[in-house]
Structures are given as structure tokens and as C-alpha cells.
Amino acid sequence: MENYRFPKLIEIKQAYQRIMAYVHRTPIMTCSTIDKMAGCEIFFKCENLQKVGSFKARGATNALLKLSPSQREKGVATHSSGNHAAALALAANLCGNKAYIVMPSNSSQIKKDAVKGYGGEIIECEPGQKFREAKLEEVLRNTGASYIPPYDHMDVIEGQATCALEMWEEKIPFDALITPVGGGGLFAGTILTTHYKSKKTPVYAGEPKGADDAYQSFKSKKYIPLKNPKTIADGLLTSLGKRNFEIILALGEDIFTVTDKEIVEAMQLIFERMKLVVEPSSAVALAAILANKKVFAGKKVGLILSGGNIDWEHLPF
């Protein structure tokens, strides 16, 4: 394990000042029907209404804006088939820079169209991590662009931490916070901000049973990479980042796993009761509360709805 330096509160606040002109301050919503079912008060932070439909806009924008002008002139690059690809493409576009996005050839057309729409240049590769990484290396060599990873990067974590900063600024006396966890950028960022703003408030995460490397790593206290993930929550099919793991292990409270059936039920509940479009990954945190009611009973819980990018052709209900 490396010993990484965690971003301080002043740096998270500076990140917020840096990105606020480029991202939305998203609303917090409530639903009395869901509160009754859950046995607690839930405050939903709607990052599904964020630019590019995901919290990823925060980290990508912060990391890009922290580059020097000469670095930014050469552009930024990443490999991603999902929300980070769109987030980096938009951040670069808004800042007048070039974004090179390596995407597997089997990425959904909706996601490719989003990246192109935000001005990103797509470089296709064969599906599989090793092909993505090899193609990215080639792009970095040819362009001199700076690599901005989706989650395992302190500037990205610092950007994601601004979401919880907005929540705490609302002066709601949260008894607990909960996020989904995949790569761990949002969970780690939420943990850091909450640690600085309200040290005693626990921060939890929900994770699909079919992609539970964060749960396994947290419980065993050693980093366990993801193997053969299978879940409807496609935004959480990524292996936990090593920097993220250090923060989660040091300061996180607990991780709960949920089934795909529980995820779909929670997603449907948010659609029907709150009239909010959320992707399966977003519903994981609510599914975790509903499956662990004793932990949250009678509490005020801040929950981050991480994104709203769904494939309308393949709705799970």
C-alpha cells in the first residue's frame, strides 16, 4: 500500500471555486413515501441532474483545470466507455481544450454520441482493459495529451468531494451519508468532506453483489481487484481505485451489498415516487438503505443519486 496525501478541506473548497462556473449546483429532494418505507428521512442529492447527467463532471473538470496552460494546450485523454468519457469531453470543450477518448468498439451508440456531441475525439479499441490501456498509451505518445483517469487520481477525488461540500452547506444535520461505490471516487470524496465537516457522521456505500470488490477489500483490509463482474449497475463495473481504497479503509464506515433485484426495485421506486430518471448505479444506495433498515432507523440520511444516464431501449422494468 502506498501512503497517499489526502486532499485537505481547503483544497476541496478551492476545487469548488475552480469548477463552479462549469458545473451545476444540484438540488436536494425528499420523498415522504420513500421515507415511510425506509423508516428514516432521506435527502436525495440529485447528481442525475448534473451536467453530462453524472457527478463525474466535477472530478473531470477539476483535474483538467489543475493542469498548467501548456499541458492543457496539448489536450487531455482517457479511456472510458461511460460517464467519465462524456464528462472529460465536456470539460475540455468548455475550457477550449482537446479531449481524446479511447472507447471500446462495443460501447453503446448513445455513449459514443454523447462524447462526440461534447466535442470529444473518439479513438476506438478492442474491448478489454489491456487493449484500452495499450491504445491510450499510443494516443498519449502521439499527442502529448495529459491522462486523466476516471477515479484513481487525487484531483478527481477532490472534485468529486465537492458534491458532499454542497450538501453540508445546506445545514441539514445529517446523521449519515451514503453513496454507490464502483471505482470509489464519489465514495472517497464524500468520506473526506464529511470527515472535515462533521467527523462523527458515518459515511456508507452500497455496492452490487455481482461486483463487490470494494466490499471484499474493505472487509479483508487488503486490496482485492474485481474479477468477472456481473450486475445491471453498469456504472459500477470498474475495479476500486488504490488511492480511493486508502481513503475508504482509513475513514469509511461500512459497505453494504445488494442484489440486482433490489437495485431494480429501488430504481423503479425513484422513477415512480420521485419522477426522477436515475441509472441503476444511482439506485444502489437506496437499495442498501432498504435492505439495512436497522442501521438507518430514525436517522437523517444524505444519499447521492450518482447519475441519470440510462439506455431507454433496455429499461429493467
Span of the ends, CA to CA:
42 Å
Strand order of the largest sheet: 1-2-10-7-8-9
The first-level CATH class of the largest domain is given as Alpha Beta
CATH architecture designation of the largest domain: 3-Layer(aba) Sandwich
Shape: globular
Number of strands: 10
On the 0-100 scale, what is the average pLDDT?
95
Instruction: Compute the number of structural domains.
Output: 2
Order of SSEs: HEHEHHEHEHEHEHEHEHHEHHHE
Number of helices: 14
> Which fold name corresponds to the CATH topology of the largest domain?
Rossmann fold
What percent strand?
5-15%
Main attributes?
single chain; 317 residues; alpha/beta; Rossmann fold; 2 domains; 6-stranded mixed sheet; 4-stranded parallel sheet; 14 helices; 15% strand
Characterization of the model:
- With 317 residues, the chain is α/β, with parallel strands linked by helices.
- The chain has two domains: 9-54 and 153-314, 3-Layer(aba) Sandwich (Rossmann fold); 57-147, Rossmann fold, CATH 3.40.50.
- Helices cover 46% and strands 15% of the residues.
- The protein contains 14 helices and ten strands.
- Strand 7 (176-180), helix 9 (185-197) and strand 8 form a beta-alpha-beta unit.
- The termini are far apart.
